[in-house]
Design goal:
Elements lengths: L8 E3 L2 E3 L12 H19 L2 E12 L2 E2 L3 E8 L2 E3 L2 E4 L2 E8 L7 E5 L7 E4 L9 E4 L19 H15 L5 E11 L2 E10 L10 E7 L4 E9 L9 E13 L24
Antiparallel strand pairs: 1-2, 3-4, 3-5, 3-16, 5-8, 6-7, 8-9, 9-10, 10-11, 12-13, 13-14, 14-15, 15-16
């Protein structure tokens, strides 16, 4: 879907097609990945108002390998009218696994609740405690690499674009683009970016992004550090997979209100 498109060469301002018996020059894999990401960002911003999904993540935090977490997510993208935000970026999550955090609920609405998360603890101890936390506070970041403000496929797309633009022209970077992968039965294109030599300031050795061919949005990202010993396995830094994406389901303010009767937050809590 994304490869093999016709490239035109320019000479003196005129468009010239390759001769019939000539193969068009292959597109650089990194540039192809960026093109897909730009298309995805445009589609998300113009056509996707909100969505629900399942996020499965695994991270290394402060040198500790965390286990898999499975999270149900609702996201509503911001909406502006005449330069005024009429619908802020909004997130609701409920942890499904593991038992340590099962049932935990978190709500974040940009610009509301004093900029804080509303959190119901969940898990096996003090499950119904409801409190407020700054998204980047030590308590909120205790078991994760990123604040909830960076969750979602649009933020993942933006990160892909930022990383790709930084790698342009980097001779230490090798990129590959492979079609035919599947996540949860859905066809995806794989983008792999790898650094050949360890260097100062490199965030990873190898990163893999899977882009849903139909939705044109990234649904998986994983990054690995160099092996701890010569010839050893790459060390997982972070892994995020979005499945069961349901787009434009019509989420409302009630979906991001802790007093929603289907949520288990303390209803009398005032952030």
């Amino acid at each position: 879907m994304f490869l093999g498109f016709l490239l035109t060469l320019t000479l003196g301002g005129a468009g010239i097609l390759p001769a019939a018996d000539e193969e068009p020059p292959p597109e650089d894999p990194l540039e192809a990945a960026l093109r897909i990401a730009y298309e995805g960002r445009k589609r998300i911003q113009e056509a996707i108002r909100d969505y629900t999904c399942i996020l499965t993540r695994r991270e290394r935090v402060d040198g500790r390998q965390m286990g898999y977490e499975t999270i149900f997510v609702k996201v509503r993208h911001p909406l502006e009218e005449q330069g005024r935000v009429v619908q802020p970026f909004s997130v609701y999550v409920r942890f499904l696994r593991p038992d340590r955090v099962k049932g935990r609920e978190v709500i974040y609405v940009e610009g509301r609740n004093g900029g804080k998360l509303i959190v119901r603890n969940g898990g096996t101890r003090f499950a119904h405690i409801t409190t407020s936390l700054l998204p980047d506070s030590p308590a909120a970041m205790q078991h994760t690499r990123y604040p909830i403000t960076e969750i979602g496929v649009l933020n993942l797309t933006k990160r892909l674009i930022e990383n790709g633009e930084q790698e342009r022209g980097n001779e230490n970077c090798e990129a590959k683009l492979v079609q035919g992968a599947k996540i949860n039965g859905r066809s995806c294109t794989v983008v792999q970016v790898a650094h050949k030599v360890r260097g100062e300031g490199l965030a990873y050795k190898t990163a893999r992004i899977l882009i849903d061919d139909e939705l044109v949005v990234p649904v998986h990202y994983s990054a690995y550090d160099w092996p701890q010993t010569e010839g050893g396995k790459l060390v997982l830094l972070e892994e995020y997979t979005y499945t069961d994406l349901r787009l434009n389901v019509g989420l409302t303010d009630r979906d991001f209100d802790h007093r929603n009767e289907s949520y288990l937050f303390l209803k009398s809590y005032s952030p």
